[in-house]
Amino acid sequence: MAGGIEIRPAHFPGRAPIDAYGNGGFRFADMSHRGSLLLLPSGIYGWEPADPTEFALHHFEKIFAEAQDIEVLLIGTGDGMRVLPKELRAAFKEAGISIDPMSTGAAVRTYNIMLSESRAVAAALIAVEG
């Protein structure tokens, strides 16, 4: 084996409902992931933010890159609902994406329903411990 182990960013190349969440991660498609997730039309990705108070525009670059395929973005903000910064709300409005911040649990449930309805939905989910 030349070169040893290669560590790649977490990515699942498809859409899948979230089967479970908590303990700092998520289960989907017979796999598990520790940490936050982005669920996009192009797949499911590991996501950097662990605290919604630290959200910045660069955390959402992948979402803006796929804006033409997203009507609604559900933002799971952890254990409770948080208001997004004004500049983020403005950027999503300009991109034509409706945003809905809510607790991560509510975002998971809503995402699964909208995905089953074949809606143009995406989600940005902060992992929770509970």
Task: Walk me through this protein's architecture.
With 130 residues, the protein is an alpha+beta fold. The protein is 22% helix and 31% strand. The strands form two sheets. A six-stranded mixed sheet has the order 1-6-5-9-7-8, with helices on both faces. A hairpin with a 2-residue loop joins strand 2 and strand 3. The longest helix has 13 residues, at 104-116. The relative contact order is 0.23.
Topology:
Elements: E1 11-12, E2 18-22, E3 25-28, E4 31-34, E5 36-40, E6 43-47, H1 61-65, E7 72-76, H2 86-95, E8 98-102, H3 104-116, E9 121-125
Parallel strand pairs: 7-8, 7-9
Antiparallel strand pairs: 1-6, 2-3, 3-4, 5-6, 5-9
Rg from Cα: 14 Å
Assembly annotation: single chain
Dominant shape: globular
Q: What is the strand content? A: 25-35%
Number of helices: 3
Mean pLDDT: 92
Order of helices and strands: EEEEEEHEHEHE
Largest sheet: 6 strands, mixed
> Roughly how much helix do the residues carry, as a percent range?
10-25%
| Low-pLDDT residue intervals, each spanning 5 or more residues | none
Q: Distance N terminus to C terminus?
A: 40 Å
The counted number of beta strands is 9
Strand order in the largest sheet = 1-6-5-9-7-8
SSE class:
alpha+beta
Protein traits:
globular; alpha+beta; six-stranded mixed beta sheet; three-stranded antiparallel beta sheet; 130 residues
